[in-house]
Write a structure and sequence with these properties.
Blueprint: H1 2-46, H2 56-66, E1 74-78, E2 85-94, E3 97-104, E4 108-116, E5 120-128, H3 132-138, E6 156-160, E7 168-169, E8 172-183, E9 186-195, E10 200-206, E11 210-216, E12 226-230
Length: about 230
Amino acid sequence: MKQLIIHLLIITLFFTVGCQQIVQEDTLETEIIEKENDTEKISEDQGLVGDKEVDENSAKTILFEYLPLQVGYKYDVVHAMDGLGEGIEVLYKDNDRFFVRGHYGSALGFYRVYEVREDDIAIVFEVTEEDLDLYEEMATVSEASDLYDLPIYNEKIVLSLPIKEKTTWSGGEIIETDAEVTINDVTYETIIVDYEEDIAQGYYYAKGKGLVQIVYVIPELSEEPLIAQMIE
C-alpha cells in the first residue's frame, strides 16, 4: 500500500512540474512575440529619411541645415561685377514665414518672404526696386505685420526634400550633394541646386551656413564661369 501511495505521489509531482514548464514556455513565447510586434511598430512610427516619410519637425530641421532662416541670419555672395551675386538679411519672423531684405549684386534691392512648408522652403513673395511703388510699400513692413496677409507673388521653391541628387521640383533640381567649396582657406561640403530660367549654373548651399557660392555661365561676358562667393 505504501509503495502504491509513493508511486502516485511521484506521478503527481512529475505531472505538476511538467504543466508548470509548459505554462512558462508559453508565457515566454508570448512575451517574445509581443516585443517583436512592439519593435516593428516603433520602426514604422519613427520613419527613415529617404525611405519613409519624416515628421514635420524633422523635415524642417533638415531644410534649416541648408538655409538656416532665423531673425538676424544673413548671407552675402558677391562677384566683382556689380550685377552678379546675392545677399539677404532676415528682419522679421511670423510663424513659418520670414521677411527678408536683400539685393542682387550691388545694384538691385528686393524684399522677400520665405515660407518653410511641409517638405520645402519657398519664396512666396518677392518684389524688386523695379516695381518701385510696391517696393516702397514693403519698406513699411514691421515686426507687428501679419506676413500671412501678403499674397503669393513671384513664388519660387528654393529647396525641397529629400536632399539627394536628382531630387526635382517645379523650377529646380539638386544636381550634386557632395561638392567641396573652399572660401578663405575654409572648405565646405555643399549641395548644388540648379534653377530653371536663371542665369546661374548652380547655387551652392552648405550645412549650417546657407548659400555660400553661385556659379554663373555667361558667354557674352566671359568664356570662363564667373564665381560669386560668400563674404563674412
